[in-house]
Amino acid sequence: MSPEPPMSPEPPMSPEPPMSPEDAGEGRVSVEDAEPAERLTGLLARPVRERLLALVAAALGDLPPEQVPAPLERVARFAPAKRARLAAAPLAAALESDAVFRGRMSELVATALPGLVEGVREGSPPPAADPLDVAALAYLDRPAGWTEVVQRCSEQLAVGDQGSAADQHRAERLESLLLAERASARTDRDRLKTDLSALKDENATLRRRIHELRPRLRAAEADAEAARAAAALVEQRGEAALASAEVDARRLRSRLGELEGQLDTVRRAGRSDRAVASSVQRILLDTVLDAAAGLRRELALPPVTVRPADDVAGYAPAEETAAARALDEEDPATVDAVLTLPGLHLVIDGYNVTRLLWDAQPLEVQRRRLVGELGSLVARTRAEVTVVFDGAELAAPPQLGAPRGVRVMFSPEGTTADEVVRRLVAAEPQGRPVLVVSTDREVVAGVRRSGARTLSSAGFLRRLSLR
């Protein structure tokens, strides 16, 4: 809030000059003839009376001295404003009791108010005329019906006084608001002065701080300049070393080319020598083999069926079929070879796979994403694909559109998806290739006993290019 501009002080009232002894004597004259003055007071309203006395006091100076009534001779020497203030009673008495004086004053006032006396005499003053002037001139001139003119002007003044009272009330209210605004402005000014003082203190502190830090800044700039010079020197040395290293590298590359040529020559010579030696060794080996084969045919020796280890006590374990082993996930060729076997049945433990990659998403989203990926796998491998989800928590099988070649199953009530997977593997005939995707140890152990191969969920996702 910006402070209001300071109010210009009201001009002081000029002190009235002190009354002289003559003025004091004239003041004694102002109490004479109190009865005519009281009649004037009863006849005219106060504003009309004040205007009348002001007009008469102003015109009294233009009246020749010989025409001035005796009680007003001393008053005539006063200033017009002083006459109206100090000689109000003698002026009122003279106007009320001296018709000749009143007529002379009427002529002088009419001269000061041209164009108004005709309307007053005719009983129709101009509407724009001041009611105070009209009433004062009607009192002085006293045409027919002048009392009615004075009464009408008094009524107009009464209405005006009511408006003036309202205006005065409004002015007082505005003055109170102005005083409140001035008080608020003073408060804001004091606050701003306080803030300005604080800012000045802070500014002084910052100036001192800047003065303290300026030497450090100069030292830092000098250090930075020295560091830049050192860096430029290091850069020059580095460029020189780089140029020298490039020269050495070109020389070494040339030498390396020469050595590679020599090595190639030596290798060709070595291959030729090895070829000759290998040919000689092969001829000798063939001769020995042919001699051994001829000797075996000649002696008709039977094949050896008994080995020394056969006589050691113990029993051999059951043979593990190749189909019961887990696939090597680090060998993509082996996994791809199994996935492309003719008649392969791929059984997938659904949530065991989806929770490994999309665990933060809802189950519906997990199912939809996995089934969508399996559609592209079926199109690529032509395998039979069955994905099993746990349906224990579902009131009814959900709506799920599966691609062609993908069978989606939910475990029935009271049965887990692991049991459904084992039943699917057990239902397949012996000899059909079956691959189960799961990381559950119980599922893996159960399907291996049934002759199925297994693949971990992580390995399967890698083959789908999802991990």
What spatial form do the alpha-carbon principal axes imply?
elongated
Strand order of the largest sheet: 3-2-1-4-5
Count every helix, treating DSSP H or I runs of 4 or more residues as helices: 16
The number of E-state strands comes to 5
Question: In words, what does this structure look like?
Answer:
The protein is mostly helical. Helix content is 65%, strand content 5%. It is built from 16 helices and 5 strands. The chain has a 5-stranded parallel β-sheet with strand order 3-2-1-4-5, sandwiched between helices. The longest helix has 154 residues. The N terminus is likely disordered.
Kindly summarize this structure in a few lines.
This protein has 467 residues and is mainly α. It has helices at 21-29, 34-43, 46-60, 73-76, 80-86, 88-97, 99-112, 117-122, 131-141, 146-299, 332-339, 350-357, 363-381, 417-427, 441-449, 457-463; strands at residues 345-349, 384-389, 406-410, 434-437, 453-455.
What attributes does this structure have?
5% strand, mainly alpha, elongated, 5-stranded parallel sheet, 467 residues
Give the arrangement of secondary structure elements.
Elements: H1 21-29, H2 34-43, H3 46-60, H4 73-76, H5 80-86, H6 88-97, H7 99-112, H8 117-122, H9 131-141, H10 146-299, H11 332-339, E1 345-349, H12 350-357, H13 363-381, E2 384-389, E3 406-410, H14 417-427, E4 434-437, H15 441-449, E5 453-455, H16 457-463
Parallel strand pairs: 1-2, 1-4, 2-3, 4-5
Helix pairs in contact: 2-6, 3-5, 3-7, 3-9, 9-10, 12-13, 14-15
